[in-house]
Every structure is written in C-alpha cells, then in structure tokens.
Amino acid sequence: MGFLCSLAFSIQFLLLFSSFLFTNCLTLNDSTTTHHHECYQHESNALFSFKQSFIISKYASYNPFSYPKTLSWNPSTDCCLWDGIECDELTGHVISIDLSSSQLYGSMDPNSTLFSLVHLQSLDLSDNDFNHSQIPAKIGELSQLRYLNLSHGNENTFSGEVPPQISQLSNLLSLDLRSYIEQLDFPFINRLHLKESTLRSLIQNSTRLEHLRLNFVTISSSLPHTLTNLTSLQMLSFRRCELYGEFPVRIFHLPNITVLNFGENQNLQGTLPASIGNLTNLAVLYLEDNSFHGEIPQSLFRLKNLEILSLSYNFFEGELALDMILKLKMLNGLDLSFNKLSLFSQNTDVNVTTLPPIQWLGLSECNLIGEVPTWMMNLTSLYHLDLSKNKLQGEIPYFLFTLENLTVLYLGGNMLEGQIELDLLAKLKKLTVLGFGGGNKLFFLEGKNTSNVTIPSQIQYLELSSCNLVHFPNFIQHLQELTDLFISNNSIKTIPSWIWNKTTLQRLEIFNNLLMGEISPLICNLQSLVHLDLSSNNLVGMIPSCLGSFSQSLRFLRLAGNKLIGSIPQTYSKRNALQFIDFSSNKLYGQLPRSLVNCRKLELLDVSHNHLNDSFPFWLQSLPKLKVISLRNNKFYGAIKCPSNCTFLKLHIIDLSQNDFSGNLSSEIIKNFKSMTLSNTSDPAHFKDDIYYLQHSLIDIDLFSFSMSNKGVVLNYHGVQYFDYMVAIDLSCNKIYGEIPDIMGSLNRLLVLNLSNNMFTGSIPSSLGKLSNLEVLDLSLNSLSGNIPQQLTGLTFLDFFNVSFNNLSGPIPENGQLSTFDDNSFKGNNDLCGIQLVKKCKDHSMLPLSTSDGNQDSESGPFFKSNWMVILIGYGGGLLVGLALGNAFAGDVFRLLKRIF
Ligand SMILES: *[C@@H]1O[C@H](CO)[C@@H](O)[C@H](O)[C@H]1NC(C)=O
Ligand SMILES: *[C@@H]1O[C@H](CO)[C@@H](O)[C@H](O)[C@H]1NC(C)=O
Ligand SMILES: *[C@@H]1O[C@H](CO)[C@@H](O)[C@H](O)[C@H]1NC(C)=O
Ligand SMILES: *[C@@H]1O[C@H](CO)[C@@H](O)[C@H](O)[C@H]1NC(C)=O
Ligand SMILES: *[C@@H]1O[C@H](CO)[C@@H](O)[C@H](O)[C@H]1NC(C)=O
Ligand SMILES: *[C@@H]1O[C@H](CO)[C@@H](O)[C@H](O)[C@H]1NC(C)=O
Ligand SMILES: *[C@@H]1O[C@H](CO)[C@@H](O)[C@H](O)[C@H]1NC(C)=O
Ligand SMILES: *[C@@H]1O[C@H](CO)[C@@H](O)[C@H](O)[C@H]1NC(C)=O
Known about the structure:
This protein is 11% helix and 21% strand. β2 and β3 form a beta hairpin. By secondary structure, the chain is an alpha/beta fold. The strands form nine sheets. It has a 28-stranded mixed beta sheet, with helices on one face. The chain has a five-stranded parallel beta sheet with strand order 13-15-17-19-21. The chain has a four-stranded parallel beta sheet with strand order 23-25-27-29, with no helix packed on it. Among the domains are: 219 residues, Leucine-rich repeat, LRR (right-handed beta-alpha superhelix), CATH 3.80.10; 298 residues, Leucine-rich repeat, LRR (right-handed beta-alpha superhelix). One 2-acetamido-2-deoxy-beta-D-glucopyranose binds next to loops.
C-alpha cells in the first residue's frame, strides 16, 4: 500500500504547490486606475504585532523554497509594500496576506490583531508551524474572505476543532485546511476536527465555493448531500476524513468538477454512474481504499482530461479491457489494484504513436490474464509498474528491462516462467523496488562474474521469494541501501556473513528455506530491523541471547519451525517495540522469561510446540496490548489462576491446550478476560484502533499466521483477522477438573470454546447458551453429567458442536441448531438419547438399547479427520468465512474485515 500511496502523496504535493499558482492568479482587484495609498497606521500596527507574535524557524515550513517573508517587514515603511501584503488600490486597506511557507513558529493568539484586518479577502498562512494551537473563532469576523488557506505539511500546526464561525465566511471561493504530510510509515494522527454541523452550515452559507480541501481533517460523518448544491465546485478533497455512508452520486453531476479526492475513507460507499463520462473537466479522481462497488463505466474512458485515476482497494467488479486506458490521452497515473476486476488485454489495434504519458500503473490483483501487453514497451515514462498477483503467463518480456525510468518493478505472484539474468537489470538504473517471487516459476540467475555487472545498486526493496535459489545471491552484497529483503521459499542453505553488515535492513525474511547451523549472534548488528522471519528452516543451537534486546525498532520476531534448543532469550530492554514473538515449533525448554513484561507493546506471544516447563504465566496480564497467547503443546503445569486480581485487558485468544495444567478453572480468571465480553457501550475508540492497525500492517497480512488445534485438526489464522474478531479459548488436552465455571457464559464475544479432553465434572452450565456468537463448542472427552441444557439450542451460529464421551443423559434438545449435528457430536454418552443416536427417546423414556456404542467407537473421529479449513470455508453465513484462507486470499480477508467494520 505504501507504494500506492506515495503517488497520491506526491500528487498532493504538486497540488499544494499549484495552489500557490491559484493564489497568484486570483486577481483581487481589477482597478485600472492606480491611486496609490499608504497603508493605514492601525493596519500596519496590527500586521507588525502579528509578526512579532511568532519566531522564525526554518523547521516550521515544509516547502524547501520557504523563506521568512516577515523578516523584511519594517514599521517605518508602507505596509502595502511589505512582502506578502497587498492593499486595495482604491481604499488602501490590506486585502491580501500571503505568508505561506514563511517559517513562522508559535501559537496563534485567539485575540490576534490579525482579526482586526476586516477588509481581508485573501489569507494564506499555509505551511507554518502554529504549535498545535486552535484556529481562532475570530476567523469568522473576516467576512470578506474569499480565499483562506491554513493547510500544512507539518505535523505541528493547528489542532482541535475547526470553529463553527468559519461558516460565517459566506464569500469564500476557496477553503483549504488540508494536511499533506508525506511520512507514510509514521502513525499519522488527524489533528483537526470538523463537526458535521459546521460543514453543513458552511455548505449552506458559502454557496460560491469552488475549492474545498479538507484532507486529514476528521469529520466522522456521512457527506452532506447539500454539497451538490454548490454548482461552482471545481475541487473537492476529503482524503482520510473518516467519512462513511453513501457517496452522493450527484457529485458526479457537478459540471465544473476537476479534482475529486475521497481516498482512504474506507467506509464510503457508492458507485460510479455512467454519466461520469460527461465530466469533461475531470482531471483527478482518487477513490482508493473505500467501499465503492459496481462496474467501472466505459464512459469513464471518454474523459480526455483525466490524469489520475485511483480506484484501488474497493469492490469494483466486472470485466474490463485494459487497452481502454490508452484512450485517456492525458493519463499519468492509474491504479486499479485490489478490486474484484477481471482485466484482459486484446493487445491489438493500439496506436502506439499516441500512447498516454503513463508514469504509474498499479494493477495488482486485477485477474489480468495472458501475456504482458506489448504496448507497455512504449510506455517510456513509466516509473511505477506493479503487475503482481495476476494471471500473467509466459516469459517475462525483455522490453520491461528497457523501461529506463522504472523505479518500481513488481511482478510477483503470477505464472511467469523462464530465467532472469542479473545483467538484464543493468539498464534499470533507477530501480528501488524489485519483486519477482511468489507463484512464478522463475529461475533467477546471477551469472558467474557479478563484479562486472552494473546492477541497480540503490535497490531498497528486493523480493526474490520462490525463485529457485540455492544460494544467497551475491549481488545483494552490493546493494548499499537495502531495507527490505524477502527471499523466502527457496532452497538456500546458508546465510552469508556479509548480510550481518547490512545495517540498513529493516525487514529480513528468509523463511521456508533449508538454512542450517546456528543463528549467528552477529544478527544483532542489524539494529534497524523491524521485521525478522527465519521460520521453517533447519536452524539449530540456541537463540542468540541478544535477540530480545538488540533493536529498539524490532516489532516482528519469528523463528518458528526450526530445531532451536535452550531457553528463550532472557533480556528484553525497556521501551522495546516487540509486537509479535513467535518461537513456536522448536525444542526450547525452561521457563518463560519474566522479563517479557518489558515488552509493553506485545500483542502476540506464541511459544507453542516446545518443551517449556513453567506454571501459568499470569504475570503476562500486565501487558496492556496482549491479544494472543499460545502455550499449546508444552509442559506447563499447575492451576490456571492468578494469585490476586488480574485483568487480561485485550486478550482475544488464549490457547493452553496440550499441557499439564490441572486444578479447578477459577471463575476469577475467566471474569478477567475483559475483551472477550462485549459490553453494550462497546467503545468506538477501540474500533478505530483496529482500523488503524489494519492499515498499517497491511504488508504483514500475507506473512502472519497463527494456528490452534482441535485434536489434530488445525485452525489456521492467517493475517490479521484473528486480531480483530477471533475470540477463542482452547484449554483442551489438560487435566483440569471441577466444574465449568458458570461465568464462562458471560464471555459473549467467544467464537471458539474448546474444553475437550480434560476432567471436567458437573453439568454443562446453561449460561453457555448466552454465548450468542459461538461457532465452535467442544466439551468432548470429559466427565460431564446431567442433561444438555435446552438453552444451547439458541446458539444459532454454532458450526461445530461436540459433547461426545461424557456422562450426559436425557434427550438431546430437538429444536434449534443442535438438531443439525449428527451422532458424532453426541456418542459415548450412555444415557443420552435422540434422533441422532441409535438410542431414540421414546416418550421421554430412557430405555437403554442394546446396540449402543460398539461400532460407533470404531468410527470415532470422522470429524477430526475432516479438514477444518473446508468446514469453515464451506460455511457461508457468518464471520468465519475466510478464517482459514491462505495468502492468496489476503485481499479478501482485508475486504471481509472492512465489511465487518
Ligand atoms: C480576548 O479578548 C477579550 C476581550 O477583548 C477577553 O475577554 C478575552 O479573555 C481574551 N481572550 C484571550 C484568550 O486572551
Ligand atoms: C451565514 O453567514 C451569515 C453572514 O456572514 C452569518 O450571519 C450567519 O451566522 C451564517 N450562518 C451560519 C449557520 O453560520
Ligand atoms: C440544496 O439541496 C437540497 C436537497 O439536496 C434542497 O432541498 C435545497 O433546497 C437546496 N438548497 C439550495 C439553496 O439550493
Ligand atoms: C463552469 O465554468 C465555466 C467556465 O469557467 C463558467 O462559465 C461557468 O459559470 C461555471 N459553472 C458554474 C455552475 O459555476
Ligand atoms: C450525460 O451523458 C449521458 C450519456 O452518457 C446523457 O444521456 C445524459 O443526459 C448526460 N447527463 C448530463 C447531466 O449531461
Ligand atoms: C495514430 O495516431 C497518429 C497521431 O494522432 C495519427 O497521425 C495516425 O494516423 C494514427 N494511426 C492510426 C493507424 O490510426
Ligand atoms: C515502441 O517501442 C518499440 C521498441 O522499443 C520501438 O521499436 C517502436 O518504434 C516504438 N514505437 C513508438 C511509436 O515509439
Ligand atoms: C525519464 O526521467 C527523466 C527525469 O525525470 C526525464 O527527463 C525523461 O524524459 C524520462 N524518460 C522518458 C523516456 O520519459
């Protein structure tokens, strides 16, 4: 997503600076007579004291050409001649202030003298640093304003609520409160908020608006349909304003519209009407990362002025001939990635002499079939080409390696085949992102004499997974700026030692290779690492003890599926950034290090399938973000309890199965699984958190997986979906005894509850009937007695149910969901009767039948042989769709989540 956005942002940047043009073009006074006036003393004073309320700091402006205009202001000269000031030729009043990019730093005084300049028609304070102060309400007193620009490229500008008084500016033609910050990986926070009521009043009052730009101003409402009354509108920019609901289709009827930017609102819904083809002025259409649907109308390709078309991350569907885009003679950037489109190229009758000047082409996951269209060879301006995750076949065409301006070439996840030789890359001197892996059948050949080959040495992002590599390519050694290296799914046996000198590395993925030997402690030189994945190899020896503390930036640490021995690293520095730790499926022993409590950001801890020997780690409760704990298949022992009050605030998934836990299951601890309970006042803040998380971890979606097992049946959680809606408790295969606590029924967000293969006694609590979201309930292989509570018939989402092999008795409730399960769910309970079983209930009498269990036992477990993935995929009605889907479906999972929100 980063790539896709950076165009958006660089265009933002261009638009910003084109707004300076707009200012200059705005002729405020058309006078031909030149009565020259000296400026009024009180206006001069007002301006001068405004100047003095700020200091000059070159860090306050983002524009590289900024300079301090107010430095030259001198009270002894005519203020009408001051830099940035313009006076009315006739009246002599100050009518325009342009202090954009003037390196002003300081808080804005709510009573600033600025607001006494009531004749102002144009005010541009953009790109300065107002130190998070509020936009003063007195702005409403500048009633002559036609042009107001408070936008910024700096995080520290205005913040708080946009004052409602802004809607008194009924003469406004242009309002710009945008932020155009460029740092993508920075957790950007919208600082300004605009109330829906203020927006409505503004629309009602400022009927002449031509430009309205509010990118990154939180609005959190639907778009007022009255917006479409403003028929003079030319530019509407509402990127990431948290808008939702229906996009007013009449916006596409505004006759003079040239720029529509509604990207990254996520829950904005709508369709593109065929009439969009009438918007002859439309130059820029950003709708990416929303919930638009329907087909992309053919009429769109009539728009001769269209320069940017960005529709990625929506639900657009239908077939589309890719060659149509060649009709858009001005087209500069196109992104259709991550929809449900099916693209094809007829690749005929293309008049290559008039190809559009396309620079950006994003067509990831577009079901593009066939060969790479040959007309691409003439897109000589192309600098971003992403054709990943399509169905492209044949060899990688040679011509791609002649597109000299390419900085991004991403072809991963297709069905391309053949060889790629390193020297092919020699012409691509600007390449920074190169990706070939995943699904293709490519052989990457380095050639013998790499020292003679001029490779694009500024590559930062290199993806060569599944490229049939048996050695670590040597040329990587010469990539001085490498930050991301993905080289998984090859047959590499050793990591060369020079890799440990590549201190620029932020992501290193070598999973699923044949790596042997120990992990070099030199790995701890890589102090910029954010993401390290060495899982599924044959690594042996101990985990280097520095691994918990070598990098302040490390968030993702995955060493699963090796043969590592010894104890888990003991040291975790304070303020470390670890969010995911996965040491599962090794041969680690000893205790969980108590210093894990220093991992304040930890969200997932997976140490399953090792030989760890410890008591229940109640102390993990102090980690405020911990969502997933898996201790499955170790030697944990003792009771599952806390010594005193403890709250696992965010815990969604706890898997303690296949250990030696014993004792009673205490009500206390269950009660403290707070986030497994859906309170009526479900906090929207938490929701936003998740949405935020989702966006920023998009790249992790493919990479992360987590699994829980149900006696050999593995539930796989790929990507982030487990984070945001999977709620599960698995205590199976332990020696827990006593009753199932009644309070279990209060964990009403639970989707999976597995208590099977323990020594639970007593009856099934009827409170479980309150777990209205439950999809999996397994109580089999215990010593539960009594009836199956009638209340369980209300569990309408139940997809898997098993109470077999207990001492249950009485009739199986006949109505509701339970009647959909067959004998496998109930057998092995001598006194249970029902239509599912050989033993029928005759008028509620419970006569045992002689042919009871014998032959059922021999078939025990067809459930367990069946594949959970299939079961879950087959279940079309509920949330579990997509649960077990693999990488190929990551996009779907993303959409699924968006739907849930
Ligand atoms: C602004 O000025 C008014 C009176 O002129 C005064 O009442 C008010 O307190 C001032 N506000 C601030 C924040 O200085
Ligand atoms: C609309 O503008 C007028 C004149 O500036 C002002 O008096 C009125 O309060 C404004 N209305 C709203 C709802 O802000
Ligand atoms: C604005 O549009 C609404 C409907 O969208 C309409 O009811 C209203 O009369 C319009 N107002 C003006 C001033 O045109
Ligand atoms: C649209 O633009 C044209 C040309 O600039 C102008 O004449 C016309 O008045 C505009 N239409 C509206 C509704 O503002
Ligand atoms: C837009 O174009 C369609 C044809 O595509 C035409 O039928 C319709 O009248 C036009 N609408 C407007 C508002 O001009
Ligand atoms: C291709 O376009 C050029 C320029 O518009 C035109 O002169 C030429 O005739 C076109 N060729 C064909 C085959 O249409
Ligand atoms: C298209 O590219 C090919 C190969 O580089 C070249 O031979 C041809 O002349 C180009 N056509 C145009 C119109 O530039
Ligand atoms: C490649 O980029 C350079 C610099 O941006 C530009 O001057 C040149 O025209 C581009 N080449 C092509 C073929 O567009």
